[in-house]
Write a structure and sequence with these properties.
The protein is of the alpha/beta class. Helix content is 40%, strand content 18%. The protein is built from 14 helices and 14 strands. The strands form three sheets. Strands 7-6-8-9-13-14 form a six-stranded parallel beta sheet, sandwiched between helices. Strands 2-1-3-4-5 form a five-stranded parallel beta sheet, with helices on both faces. A three-stranded antiparallel beta sheet has the order 10-12-11. Helix 5 links the parallel strand 3 and strand 4. The longest helix has 21 residues. The protein is elongated.
Amino acid sequence: MPTVAIIGTLDTKGEEFGYLADLCSERDLDVLMIDVGVFDPEITPDISHDEVASAAGETIERLREDRGTAMAALSKGLELLLPELYAQKRFDGVLSLGGSGGTALATSGMRALPLGVPKLMVSTMAAGDVSDYVGTSDILMMPSIVDVAGLNAISRTVFARATSAMAGMLSHPLDAEESERPLVAATMFGVTTPCVDKAASLLEEAGYDVLVFHATGAGGKTMERLIRDGYISAVADLTTTEWCDELVGGVLSAGPHRLEAAARAGIPQVVSVGALDMVNFGAPRTVPERFSSRHFYPHNPQVTLMRTTVEENRSLGLILAQKLNEATAPAVVLLPERGVSALDAEGAPFRDPQADEVLFASLEEGLTNELVTLHRVDAHINDPGFASRAVRELINLMK
């Protein structure tokens, strides 16, 4: 019989979590009840709040002194404890209910679990921006409709549907058979699509499975996580545009750790400068006033692109060099001298050979790692020959 871990603040919502446990039992699910409350629980847990606090190096008595400290410590404890319990085969899926605090607590642990483990969060926050709760994980967020406070006709219906969804996921486990084809990650943006489509096609013909990540911030973060978790054998990181948004202040940043995972994991990577000519904003009215004099291109009514400057390109080159200097396995950098995106082609709105040359030169000058080889290519990034060159270099590294 599958087991579902239920994460709950049992000091304030014992009735609700007890009802959830009963629903799970009705659906032939065993329950592992984990208490993340601070005070005495209203129902008896299987994993106490003392155990969760201890995993974070704290005591529950000290955590009762301050709610903020308690939230942070219990989140950390759950993040450390939940993967251990899963590795011990104590549960097969995880389910929780909560408002903003309960959601933050439960999802901190859910995010630490491997992809594919069923994770369902019934939350008052599920109708809004859930990116902070989900992160790069595969958490399923379900709106609670009403507050998770007491039982009523609406909450009973929502909780019943949530447990049925969990039962469905656990009664149809994933096929454990793994493909023998190595996984290659590739990064793509709309303005580098021809390049990455061609590269992906060539890699698949050569016997690799290709995971293409849209370089929209979330895409880069997800790819980095999968690399850290050991899913990826090699990376065709041809579109590093997320660094523009991180540096300048656009809306599609992947954070300051982009380009680190492959270097530290010691896996082959071919890196290029795809779409480093642009910073992303929303509709024109969302562009900060400080950029009013800059060069813009309306990609569509909801997306406004801003051309990066010479100085920004100098900084971007140095940042990429710094990240690549951390590489622990051979890597190749390819620089397309005829343009880094569809908008940087001859006659296109963002064509700026000076900015591109500063980008290339600063990257080249900043590289000090002997494991990293840099080549300038007399081609536009979307030329078929550039994609072919990238694939040849990556396959050679993998061999």
